[in-house]
Design a protein that fits this description.
Blueprint lengths: L1 H4 L4 H19 L12 E2 L7 E2 L6 E6 H7 L4 H5 L5 E5 L7 E5 L7 E5 L2 E3 L17 E8 L3 H4 L6 E7 L7 E9 L3 E13 L5 E16 L11 H4 L5 E15 L4 E15 L6 E18 L2 E18 L2 E21 L2 E16 L7 E15 L2 E12 L3 E12 L5 E12 L3 H5 L11 E13 L3 E19 L10 E21 L2 E14 L6 E2 L6 E11 L2 E10 L2 E2 L7 E2 L2 E13 L2 E8 L7 E3 L2 E2 L4 E10 L1
Length: 628
């Protein structure tokens, strides 16, 4: 296994390995149950509320407390180093960032915001960089194939983002921060909820945020690019983002409740190239009506819309626009029958493209019927589901999944699962002028997984091993042709991804420890091939250590990534790297906290996408107010 990790600095690997080994032995004598007080409820793994410990899939939860402690510069920075997650970013703040979940492609992770499916119908990706972390309350990352519940795109898993929400009768919060690169951040919000003895009550939430940075020169010279002399702009590439989230809901009685949410972020982004500036918008609107006539039956109607727009400029002159509109609706019923829970539902989605770039087809409608059964038999748990989708372009597709869990001791659970998934080509894949390939076939996958979890008074750990086979994987071929001088996407006959994830969380001598490591073998196995899939590292690891000393808190994070390649032919090698972040906080009044975050403190030079440098040593000083 040494050849997989040799590109991470040896001292970083030694520290991560040592901490992972000694944490359990320290904690065994510390008697600290707080490390595993994981009684929170998740909804993404089954489309129904369930205790996190009951989930039969691999799940990671990022809380508001985690976000405030780490103070990441962006959502991609927050996700970096999470179990099974790898990030490739084209520069600094606001620049396009791709998320690879369990070695699958960046558009193989289904992304939801408050239950509404988001993402571009043209590129297929999600603009993570334009969703401010200040607007996020919580993130659930569920790994594995989930097309049987959610339909297309969920080959690698689901990332569900929940916007800010109130917890008490009145919540108020404020934050302000400043750092190098001319960085400024502000956020403020209020909210509240109330309930009466007859199960009536409502809630509301409003939160606004602003960030601005001068950035840095986020593109370096590429000697092989004949356009670099024209495209290279040795200046700072700044970014600005304004955002607002709103939400309200009301429970009329035990049977009826409604809620509505809205989120909008407007960004201005500067970068190198002929197109050197863009104005972007991410907007998500959603509403739900829920009817539960008895404790054994519930119906919910959900409606949503996502708008993803970009206006591009060159030297201040308009140079075209892209707008993607996604409208969704779903009707879901959950019914308790004996000891089991049956879920049946219907999903509807329309994807539309509005652009001054001509597309041969500009609309697609997908309809899906799904069903799921969950039940516990003593120490055993089952979750079985199936779904059929009908796409107006590609016809019908059926997917399914089966998950099993066995609590063979009070502390240990064994899990196993199998599932299929699929993804249809995007409008860019098919029709983008001089680039698209209208003969592309949809991708399909099959995945198997086995896992083991342990939960004790001192903490918890997990190990999951998985294998995914993807047929007709869509991959960009840079080889030019007379018809497509910039190359085109094509179907790879088969790709195979094998991997193992391990996590640990504990408390030792007052310190909270969280660590994970992911080992991957992602390969293009078509026609006997053996090339690694681009931008996937074979090794990723991260460890977080935090402790409070009265009013003070201190912490550190170390994240390491092994080598990977930037191209399908494995000729452009990106070396491995590791970064270290430090943080110090001081609660100087009941509701006020001053915090200093220093990131990449050893000023490591690295790239996650070739020719796009990542931030060097940087810092942020912030003050937070949270009243309840």
């Amino acid at each position: 296994m040494n050849h997989r990790v040799s590109n991470i600095p040896r001292r970083t690997l030694l520290a991560i390995g040592l901490l992972a080994c000694i944490a359990p032995s320290f904690a065994a004598g510390s008697g600290a149950p707080d490390a595993t007080a994981l009684d929170d409820v998740i909804v993404t793994a089954s489309r129904t509320p369930q205790a996190r410990d009951a989930a039969l899939a691999a799940v990671t939860v990022i809380t508001r407390e985690d976000i405030e402690r780490r103070a990441p510069a962006s959502l991609p920075e927050l996700l970096r180093g999470m179990p099974g997650v790898a990030i490739a970013s084209n520069g600094g703040p606001g620049k396009v960032a791709s998320t690879f979940l369990r070695g699958t492609d960046s558009d193989h992770a289904l992304v939801l915001v408050d239950g509404v499916r988001i993402g571009s119908a043209t590129s297929g990706g999600t603009a993570f960089q334009d969703i401010p972390v200040e607007q996020i309350e919580r993130i659930e990352i569920v790994r594995g194939p989930f097309s049987s519940l959610y339909g297309a795109d969920a080959l690698g898993g689901v990332i569900h983002i929940f916007t800010r929400r109130p917890h008490d009768s009145f919540d108020a919060n404020f934050n302000a921060g400043a750092g190098n690169y001319g960085t400024q951040r502000f956020g403020a919000g209020i909210g509240g909820r109330g309930e009466t003895s007859d199960d009536k009550g409502g809630w509301y939430q409003v939160h606004a945020a602003y960030e601005n940075t001068d950035g840095y020169d986020s593109y370096r010279d590429n000697p092989a690019n004949p356009f670099d002399d024209f495209d290279l702009n040795p200046d700072r590439d700044g970014y600005r983002n304004r955002s607002l989230s709103l939400g309200a809901g009301h429970r009329f009685n035990r049977a009826w409740d409604v809620e509505a949410r809205g989120f909008r972020a407007e960004g201005n982004n500067e970068y190198d190239g002929f197109y050197d500036e863009s104005d972007v918008v991410q907007q998500v609107l959603g509403g739900r009506v829920r009817y539960a006539p008895t404790e054994k039956a519930m119906l919910s109607l959900n409606l949503g819309r996502n708008d993803d727009t970009s206006d591009n400029f060159s030297a201040g002159q308009p140079m075209g626009f892209f707008a993607s509109h996604r409208t969704t609706g779903s009707l879901q019923g959950d019914f308790s029958v004996g000891e089991g829970l049956w879920t049946v539902g219907y999903d509807w989605r329309r994807d539309e493209v509005d652009s001054d770039t001509p597309f041969d087809v500009e609309e697609r409608i997908t309809r899906g019927l799904f069903g799921q059964w969950q039940q516990r038999f003593g120490a055993h748990s089952l979750q079985v589901g199936a779904r059929h989708d009908d796409d107006t372009q590609f016809g019908g597709k059926t997917t399914g999944s089966a998950r099993w869990g066995w609590d063979f001791t009070d502390a240990l659970r064994l899990t196993a699962s199998y599932g299929t998934a699929y993804r249809s080509p995007t409008f860019n894949d098919l029709y983008y002028p001089f680039f698209g390939n209208a003969t592309l076939d949809p991708e399909s996958s099959r995945s198997a997984e086995i896992g083991l979890r342990g939960k004790y008074a001192w903490g918890e750990w997990t190990v999951n091993a998985f294998e995914t086979h993807i047929d007709d994987l869509i991959s960009y071929d840079p080889t030019p042709t007379p018809e497509r001088p910039f190359g085109q996407p094509g179907n790879i006959e088969e790709a195979r991804i094998r991997g193992t994830e391990a996590t640990i969380a504990t408390t030792a001598f007052g310190w909270n420890w969280q660590g994970n490591v992911t080992l991957l073998d992602p390969r293009n196995t078509s026609a006997g091939g053996d090339a690694l899939l681009p931008r996937r590292s074979r090794t990723n690891a991260r460890i977080d250590v935090d402790r409070s000393f009265g009013r003070f808190s201190v912490g550190a994070s170390i994240a390491g990534t092994g080598k990977r390649y930037d191209d399908p032919a494995n000729t452009l090698r990106l070396p491995g790297y590791a970064t270290t972040d430090l943080r110090v906080g001081y609660t100087f009044a009941e509701a006020w906290t001053l915090q200093v975050n220093a990131n990449n403190v050893f000023d490591k030079t690295y790239e996650t996408a070739m020719f796009y440098p990542q931030p060097g040593r940087n810092w942020l000083v912030s003050v937070r107010y949270a009243a309840k």
